[in-house]
Structure prediction request, 358 residues.
Amino acid sequence: MKYRQIQSTDLTVSEVGFGVWSVAMNWWGEVSEADGINLLQKAADKGITFFDTADTYGAGYGEEIIPKALGDRRNDIVIGTKFGYDIEAPREGHRERPQNWDPDFVKRACENSLSRLQTDHIDLYQYHNARLDVIQREDTVGALEELKAEGKIRHYAVAVGPDIGWREEGLYTIRERKIPAQLIYSILEQDPADVMIEAAQEVGVGVYARVPHASGMLDGTYTKETVIDGMPFDSSDHRAYRRMHWLRQSVEKLKQIDFLISDKPATVGQIAIKFVLNPPIMASCLPTMTSVEQIDEYVAAVDIDDIPQDELDRLGPIYENNFGVGPREPQKSSTSATGWVDHNGQPIMREMVVPGVS
Prediction:
């Protein structure tokens, strides 16, 4: 394993971190507690020191499992967790839990996280899916500064998301707050993280990335020969069009980047991680790992050769042309009058949004 400092902090983390969501939620299949503990311990054995979780993962379970697996290694690991959701509030269907950014709530959430993590401090305390107006709140920042002064958190940051976009939030976090940001970034999904990375390099603020495998498109599950047949969702489900559209376009994109993948002594999953770690300001990459084999594969990525510059140069125009599959989908915006922007951050009309995207 190799390690990098999260710039603007004194935290040093493994280049490959562990997203605890994979063992705390059932999005990738059911994981028993015993299997989850085993994966966390195997990751630590391989040199992974950065473990990223949230109070909302499994309504607290994503924090509780860390001391069960790594309690005896607390001084050797960096724990990132998140705040902002009221995990005690009732949840209605698939809707997100309500959020609360008031100072008293933030302090109470921190105390609860400390208790579940069985530690006296959190290394990196992150806003969880906060909109721009929230990141701009001085009372929330005041509460975080008090928690720092009390030694309960070492640093705070913003997990920008939950989906692609959130340009204004990321840039404000980096340029104005000058605190680290967790970004969505991959070969297939570079913007607007690319402008955030550029800003981070300019001001010396650390960033780290999740979803390096583009929601499974770059982990080896799919290849350029994959045929997407059938509907992942019932045709009456509003997500059906969106999912099929995305899958088919993604397979077409894989064909365009075959030069990055073929004839190399590395897996596509390893190349995807190496791409994310290419910017020097990028401290760590947080892939989804659900097996010991994936841990072995992704950890080994740090030792493969860098992607040649001529291949990165070739990738630029291909990405700018959206891999030849048509216009990029719009992104939600906090500041655009229309609520949507294109990949350059320019406002667009709601009628231009791809059907099925909300």
In short: Residues 3-222+265-322 form a domain with the TIM Barrel fold (CATH 3.20.20.100). Confidence is low (pLDDT under 50) at residues 353-358. The CA atoms of residues 67 and 118 lie 6 Å apart. The two ends are 39 Å apart (CA to CA).
